[in-house]
Amino acid sequence: MIIDTHAHYDDEQFDTDRDELLSRMHDGGIGLIVNAGSTLESWTKIRKLTEDYPFVYGAIGIHPDEAGSLDEECMARMERLLDLEKIVAVGEIGLDYYWDKESHDIQKKWFIRQIELARKKEMPLIIHSREAASDTFEIMKKYAQGMKAVIHCYSYSPEMAVEYVKMGYYIGVGGVITFKNAKKLKAVVEAVPLTSIVLETDCPYLAPEPYRGKRNCSLYLPYVAGKIAELKGVSAEEVARRTEENSRILYNLQSL
Ligand code: NI
């Protein structure tokens, strides 16, 4: 089976056909989906999704673009949600200097606070990092040592990916790998072992070829697996099997 380690089915782009779409996952070979948190409003929707669909799990966290909406009361609410059985990670959290919607100090403060909460709850991290390579790396080194994490939608150098892998983290690979101009990400996939890669959509964003620019969904993950298989010189089945195992280790889902 294929596991989607990062999706946003709470997004309003799915409001018209969410149930119909999710009902097709099993036949499409998608066995488990982890829906990542982004805004405060996403949390309630994610909880509901995990209650409505046995194969949907959730992560709770605040995206760096929204870091300014966090306060102590929200952190307490986050902590309570993390106790729910089907909430399996803290995320997505991190730094985004591309959109730069919040000051770097605010982003760093709440990134670190959410890492500390995950450590307290012994939960893995889903890391979002865009144009903030060195600050993210420094914070992970200082605060997330020994924790489990995925660097979601990885967009940096192969050298840094290797460093993250040495720290025990997973590299999240999605639709971008199928893009013609994705030279750097292809070099990343070649540089890190298959045992450190997990599949993700980040849907509704970043649909793979041949759906580039359209609304993404987990059913398109075989295109991502196929491209990774080609780069690694193994079968797509092997990529699906191995990344499933990696995802289960990452999110503590081995017994399911
Ligand atoms: Ni995301």
Task: Describe this structure as you would to a colleague.
This protein has 256 residues and is α/β, with parallel strands linked by helices. Helices cover 40% and strands 17% of the residues. It is built from nine helices and eight strands. It has an eight-stranded parallel beta sheet with strand order 1-2-3-4-5-6-7-8. The longest helix is centred in the middle third of the chain and has 18 residues, at 104-121. The two termini are 12 Å apart. The model has no long low-confidence stretch (mean pLDDT 97). The chain binds nickel (II) ion (NI). Residues 6, 8, 36, 92, 202 line the site of nickel (II) ion.
> How many DSSP E strands?
8
Number of helices: 9
Main structural class:
alpha/beta
As residue ranges, the low-confidence spans are none
> Order of SSEs, N→C?
EHEHEHEHEHEHEHEHH
Structural Rg: 17 Å
Tell me the major beta sheet: 8 strands, parallel
- Straight-line N-to-C gap: 12 Å
Shape field: globular
Overall average residue pLDDT: 97
The amount of beta strand, in percent, is: 15-25%
Helix content: 40-55%
Question: Gist?
Answer:
The protein is of the alpha/beta class and 256 residues long. It is built from nine helices and eight strands.
Task: Tag the structure with descriptive keywords.
256 residues; alpha/beta; 8-stranded parallel beta sheet; 8 strands; binds nickel (II) ion
